[in-house]
Amino acid sequence: MGVPCGRNAYDYAAQQDDNRISTAEVQSQAAKREDRIASRRRQIGSLEGEDGADDSLYGPGIDDDVS
Q1: What is the rounded CA–CA span in Å between residue 67 and residue 60?
Q2: What are phi and psi of 59, to 5 degrees?
Q3: What's the Rg (C-alpha) of the chain?
Q4: What pLDDT shows up at residue 63?
Q5: Distances (CA, A) of 45 to 3, 15, 33, 35, 67
Q6: Longest Cα separation, the chain
Q7: I want to staple 9 with a disulfide (CB 3.0 to 4.6 A). Which of 1, 5, 21, 49 is the partner?
Q8: Backbone dihedral region of 63: left (phi > 0), alpha (psi from -120 to 50 degrees) or beta?
Q9: How far apart are CA 11 and CA 8, in angstroms?
Q10: How many angstroms separate the Cα of 54 from the Cα of each of 16, 20, 31?
Q11: CA 42: distance to chain centroid?
Q12: Where is region (Disordered) located (predicted)?
């Protein structure tokens, strides 16, 4: 643009960049944490689902009719 900027403008831009990067890092960490929590919940849910499926096949009264 050909417009000279002073020291204060440069410092302000550098500070804004630092703030933007810090905010992005915090958001990234939060997203990673939420992803880990969701992954653990899916894993626990699938493990509990397998156990529940086995239990339902062997419950009393499933096939009492013996011919």
Answers
A1: 17
A2: -80, 160
A3: 29
A4: 63
A5: 60, 45, 18, 15, 38
A6: 96
A7: 5
A8: beta
A9: 5
A10: 57, 51, 35
A11: 11
A12: 19-67
Q: Which amino acid is at 56?
A: S
Tokens at residue 58, please? Answer: 């062997």
Cα dihedral sign, 25-28-34-37: negative
Q: Find how far residue 24's CA is from the centre of its chain.
A: 15
Q: Give the single-character DSSP code of 59.
A: -
pLDDT at 27: 97
| Total residue length of the chain | 67
